[in-house]
Amino acid sequence: MARELDYAQRVERSLTKKYHKEIWAPFTRAVKTYELIKEGDKIAVCISGGKDSMLMAKLMQMLKRHSDVPFDLVYLVMDPGYNEINRHKIEANAALLQIPITIFETNIFEVANSTDKNPCYLCARMRRGYLYSKAKEMGCNKIALGHHFSDVIETTVMGMFYGSQLQAMLPKLHSTNFEGMELIRPLYCVHEDDIIAWKQYNELDFIQCACRFTENCTMCDNGGGGSKRQEVKTLIRRLKRDNPNIEKSIFNSIHAVSLDTMVGYKYKGERHSFLDTYDEVRGDGTIENVSAPVSEA
Question: pTM, whole model, 2 decimals?
């Protein structure tokens, strides 16, 4: 007689069976392709309480259990000043999914909400700083955030439309302020639509927008209100009607940037122009005065 699975086990089975192609496979592919996890890592899995970070926590937990590469995890929840309902929902979902979270308190919402000058930017910067600091205090060398494939696409488009630059979201990066720390994004190849489908299939209910500054969610990214990110989401959804592969094309384009066709670019904060090397390059794209021997056909 088959053993009856508890709820958390059924959720895990949905990831390895029903959503293997949509979630588990792209998750493990990202971990391998971008070398996100290495032997001996201690990773702080940062949980905000939304669908993305909760899914990431469960996937990381499953990966640790089955991986041949030994690594440790800490499931870190930073409370920036959640209201009682959201705080309880995070704790209840973690218990339901059998994720042993560690919660620490901050006053981020209080500080951010006291300024009239870009409180959202201040809140985001403070969140990242607190997470790095707490993770390092707990002996971690990496933090994992729940940004997914759709975030990558939207960030790229937003950079062009509203930031006047071609800027992508990397799958991992070194911290500039916390020496020895890295940020990784294990959901880099997982589509948001598939995360939503998984959530609905398992009848899970996560917090949407916990921001105390916009409690009604009319302007926050997750609430579907008036944010620039939501405008881009709507645009991409509209474009997909005519070109179902448009997201894949945008994603592939940030993996195949042709710098020799760019008028200008920035590297490590320093601006470069095509004029810097223009006189060294012939019209066919090859560089003059190359001393390497040319092989004959």
Answer: 0.86
